[in-house]
Amino acid sequence: MRSVAAALVVAACAFALYDRTLLPGVDFGDTGSFQATVGSPIISPRDGYPLYFAIGDLFLRVTRDEPARALNQASAVEGAVAAGVIVLAAEELSGSLWAAIASALLFAGSYTFWSQAIIAEVYALHALFVSLTLLLLLRWERQPTLARLSCFFAVYALGFGNHLSMVLLLPGFTLFLFIAAPRGWRSLLTPRVIAAAVAFAAAGALQYVWNLRALWISTQPPHGLADALQMFWFDVTKTDWRETMVFNVPASMLRDHLSMYWFDLHQQFGLLGIALAATGLAALARDAWRRGVLLASLYAVNVAFAYSYNVGDTHVFYLPSHLILALAMAPGIAALGSAVSGRLQPRARGAAAAVVALAALGYGAARVYDDYPALDRSADRRPSEVLDALTADLDDRDAILLTDLNWQVQNGLSYYTSAIRPETAVARMPDVLPYAPALIRDNAAAGRLVVVTERARAELSAAYGPLIRIDADARAHADSLAAVIRSVPAGTRYVLCLLRPSRDLTLDAHEVHEDARALGIDRAFVWPSGDYTVVAGVIGQPPSLAAGSSNPFRRQVVIGGVPVDIRMESWLAADTIRRMGFGQVIAARQHTLIVERGLSFAAFDEHGRPLRTGYAANLFAPQPRYIASLR
User: Fold this and answer.
1) 600-604 long-range contacts, Cβ below 8 Å, gap at least 24?
2) Does residue 294 sit in the same domain as residue 225?
3) Which strands, in side-by-side order, build the sheet including 468-472?
């Protein structure tokens, strides 16, 4: 009962942390897609994740909140429950409740997991299933009955309804079952065990009937069951992505990925946490080698997959391996406590072991305190502000918006026009380009304007040239970053960060120099070199800090009496997607600026509160709008 009570306390504390730092609304990327899809009765095979959406639907009905916030809240609850289950699994591995609590705190407060537990994403629920299946497997080893084994099979099969990467646990779980079976591996190949495994696997697969059903009610249904299953498998496993991304990291990038992994590992746990995990794995290898093999194999398979996955958000695919390391920390803490207490008198041994565990707990708490301002997204309304500006003054009675946006922004717009501004009529320019002149003519006849975004304007001009007249939409507000900076009075504190833009966005040197001049920086000033650069100070005065590097860094500086912590927290060679941003600026322990690729600017007051922010050459840069008409 002590263990369960401790797990509940840890879960409650984790939920309080996540709820306080929760993203309040819509986000871009996959998060925006999930938020737009939740509540829909039709989930296509491409959407996948039937269990995730079923739980999301439940939260939507119970909270009666805006879909974006309801789904964000679901992640917070799932992440908190995962933290509680980790306590139980870590105690099972270590025999020490305090060590288990410390390891759960280190994972719950780790940078990437925390960032995923406060937005609509599948990884908090995935961590819950990884930890729960591991707990059930360890308890089966302690008391190997068919009932316990069946519980493990059932939960493992259910986990596939959230994320198919549960399959990466299969090699480690299978190996452990065979080496831990008390009557030898052949005892697991009995008809009863095989029947239970097959039955629960089939039951788990039934979750995807929801997705399969969507094919039959689509505009182009499949030709028979075989065709449906082929289409289903292609979409639900994202075969087209898998063929180009899995085990497809260029050889020239392998060393860089190794550096990225070390950076990512240090970002999650610090050197002490890494050392504790290594100690724990060594202790398990010595005292419970089968459990050591289990953790080592789970870790190796998940790291190998993430390392070889050529995708723009590799860091989130390392999360299962981070969870395994966090679990290994518990026996590491316990082993360290035993080593220290072994040199003391018997009466003092228990106290010494408790002190070691409490020290690890303090280390985890200190890391949470340090990262809290950087991971607090409770005031992050940047996606809503971008979408507000993009759709301002547009109503389907008098206008239609044609877009060709970055896919991450497009997903956010899909949510926005379905849940927040359903009165906005939107179409994608690539879909309507073949008949765009007719579309413009018919809307003009109906008294509607045809409004286009920047990239859509370029496509329209390239396709139809002088046939189409395009004028700037005077109703749209898209001030340049230099204009934003000029609106801030001299004597105001500021930070301006420049990170190498992604390939689909450009930033010329003239724009950078124009922004520097707007800050009052002398023409002789040389911008720091490197992929990560920052200039900070007081407008109208020489910069207090000008730093650049090819690798992420962290700098502290005092600007106008305000302590400022600048944290570059990404790996640009591998990262094209960072839901939490590519860096953070913390002033007076306030989350002043989320740094993105391209240019990111914030002017702030003596309390660290942002007065003006601005972006260029990234997802949060203002989107210009144009009006298209026939000549």
Assistant:
1) 600/496, 600/497, 600/499, 601/481, 601/484, 601/485, 601/494, 601/495, 601/496, 601/497, 601/515, 602/494, 602/495, 603/485, 603/488, 603/492, 603/493, 603/494, 603/539, 604/492, 604/493, 604/494, 604/495, 604/562
2) yes
3) 426-428, 399-403, 449-453, 625-630, 468-472
Helix or strand (DSSP H, E) at 335: helix 319-341
Range list of H helices, 206-318: 209-216, 225-236, 239-245, 254-287, 289-308, 314-317
Contact yes or no for 23/119 (Cβ under 8 A):
yes
Return the H-helix or E-strand segment holding 72: helix 67-94
pLDDT, residue 137, reads 98
Distance CA 470, CA 539 (A): 37
Distance (Å) of CA 582 to CA 104, 254, 310, 354: 26, 21, 18, 38
The ranges of the chain with pLDDT < 50 are 349
Count the domains in the chain. 3
Q: Which amino acid is at 97?
A: L
Contact 478, 623 (CB under 8 A): yes
Q: What's the confidence (pLDDT) of residue 464? A: 93
Q: What is the pTM of this model?
A: 0.94
In one-letter notation, the amino acid at residue 205 is A
Structural domain ending residue among the three candidates 314, 349, 375: 375
Domain termination site, one of 477, 498, 527: 477
Q: How many C-beta atoms surround the C-beta of residue 618 within 10 A?
A: 20
| CA distance linking residue 303 with residue 322, whole number of Å | 9
> Do residues 278 and 397 both lie within one domain?
no
**What is the three-class DSSP state of 550?**
coil
Pairing of strands 590-595, 610-616: unpaired
Alpha carbon distance 168, 302 (integer Å): 6
By CB atoms closer than 10 A (0-12, 13-18, 19+), residue 411 is buried
Residue range(s) defining the domain that contains residue 588: 481-616
Q: Are residues 472 and 541 in the same domain?
A: no
Tokens found for residue 267: 């970002």
pLDDT at 342: 64
The answer for 560, left when phi > 0, alpha when psi is -120 to 50, beta otherwise, is: left
Residue 351: what pLDDT? 65
DSSP letters, 551-614, are S--EEEEEETTEEEEEEE---TTT-S--TT-SEEEEETTEEEEEE-SEEEEEEE-TTS-EEEEE
Residue 343: what pLDDT?
61
Assess whether 363 and 390 both reside in one domain: no
Q: How crowded is residue 223: how many other Cβ atoms within 10 Å of its Cβ?
A: 9
Answer for the pair 587, 557: CB distance below 8 angstroms, yes or no: no
Same-domain pairing of 125 and 168: yes
d(CA 589, CA 364): 19
CB-neighbour burial class of residue 478 (10 A; exposed 0-12, middle 13-18, buried 19+)? middle
Cα dihedral value 190, 191, 193, 194, nearest 10: 110
Residue at 622 is within a domain? no
Given a contact cutoff of 8 angstroms between Cβ atoms, the answer to whether 10 and 105 are in contact is yes
